[in-house]
Amino acid sequence: MKMKSLILTMIVCICMSTTLMSQKKGEMKDINYRRSSLHTILMESDNFPRAEVVLKSYYSAPFPDKYNDHTIGTKSFDPGIYAITDEERAAAGTEQTKAGKFAKGAASSATAGIVDSQAADNPLIIEKYLKENKIANQMVAKWFNRQPDGSFNMDIISERGYYDASDLEANIATAAVKGISSLSDAGEELLNNTFVVVSKMNFVSNEIAAAIVREAAKLAAKEIKNPIAKKAAIISADKSYEKTKEGYSVWTTSYLYKLIWNDSIAAVFYNDLWINKSNIDTKKTEAFDNTNLFKLEYVGDEKSVSLVMFSLKEKRTEDQIVELATIRNIDAVYAKLQKKYDVFKTKTPLYTGNPITAKVGMKEGLEGGEKFEVLEQTVDSKTGLTKYVGKGTITVDEKKIWDNRYNAGEDPNDGNLEISETTFKGGKKYYSGLLIRQLK
Questions:
Q1: What is the number of structural domains in the chain?
Q2: What whole-number distance in Å separates Cα of residue 225 and Cα of residue 245?
Q3: Among 323, 345, 367, which residue terminates a domain?
Q4: pLDDT tier at 167 (50, 70, 90 boundaries)?
Q5: Each residue of 249-301: pLDDT tens digit?
Q6: Nearest alpha-carbon partner for 185 in 261, 299, 96
């Protein structure tokens, strides 16, 4: 039996090696791997310059290609509908004093939105929106491809996880040991890696911030006793203002949430809420609509700021410049979330093994020197569940980083556009298809 298994393993390895060696670098086929799934939502706001262009750019931005698109239809909401009361703040432990409200409001007025007067309330507003609209229920409904009659099927899970849909559905009905294992794997690999990112954006004139900085510098200059030094400080403040007043800044804060899915939730869902096409149950349909079983947990947030400068030499229109900055700003905040929170980090397959390359780059925030762990996806023979075995670490080659940012090449400061993947250092036995994940 062991000899038979050994021979089979050798055959598979030889076939894999032959396939990889026969493919040229530019002819590598797409590699199937399980991605995390993502739904993005925008907190609407229209009280800032060029709001229409910014919002249009957000909605038309390419979906993050390292995630499955788990959009459930709702892409934005009006935070004014979900205003937070003092009682709700107190219950959440974030009650604001009158002085605090006044200071925050004054800052917002003075800077035309540089300081978001609702910033402290944003997490509470989002929680309220998510709960009242049962976004978690909608995320689960999409995973199980819920139909108008309330029935579920495994088509989406099968497609994204490379499982057999018929087997999974049969195993739900029979609760076979094999079924429990495969369903647990799908839950851990797919549903447990489902996220919602809610973003709040502002587009602020740099002139306002520059004016505030200049006034602060001039106030400080008044304290200088030496008249020559005082005059020099004032002149310096004016020069700095002239250099920094042009253009705008894109400010984005993104809040990350994760769908909670575990064996207990799965058991209730499969036993009490699951409906198949051949056995429609209106009571279960109503129960799913009303259940509070499914929830999204807050993971954390990140901020990103991008400068938007206009120049007479610029060939693009101002709207095109705003669009470029907006979309790159969104990518930047996603990259920050991935670096800060391990649970949100994506896995990416190696594109080639010699040299070691992968389709990640500047859009993911790479600058050179970042370390990635190399993982091999296997199946645990005892549990039947997917596991990832560490094979080593590799480091980004700072001289060979792919500029995959939105519309790369439209800015003269963009990177080397001849590079179409990022190169890594650190190993010789890796091959296309192994997965990599960035380390802190």
A1: 2
A2: 29
A3: 345
A4: confident
A5: 888 999 999 999 999 999 999 999 999 998 899 999 999 999 999 999 999 99
A6: 261
* CA 356 – CA 67 distance, rounded (Å): 22
- Average of pLDDT values for 223-230? 88
Assign 3-class secondary structure to 65-85. CCEEECCCCCCEECHHHHCCC
Among residues 317, 345, 373, the one where a domain terminates is 345
**Unique residue bearing structure tokens 């006044």:** 102
Same domain as 419, residue 272: no
pLDDT band at 416 (very low <50, low <70, confident <90, very high): low
State which residues form the domain around 309: 33-203+250-345
Query: Alpha-carbon distance 148 to 164, whole Å?
Result: 23
- Asked if 337 and 197 count as a contact pair (C-beta separation under 8 A), the reply is yes
Question: What is the DSSP secondary structure assignment for residue 383, as one 8-state letter?
Answer: T
For 269, counting Cβ atoms within 10 Å of its Cβ (0-12 exposed, 13-18 middle, 19+ buried), the class is buried
Residue with tokens 């009280």: 47
Residue 26 located in a structural domain:
no
CB 250 within 8 A of CB 239: no
Beta bridge partners of 300: 256
Predicted TM-score of the model (pTM): 0.82
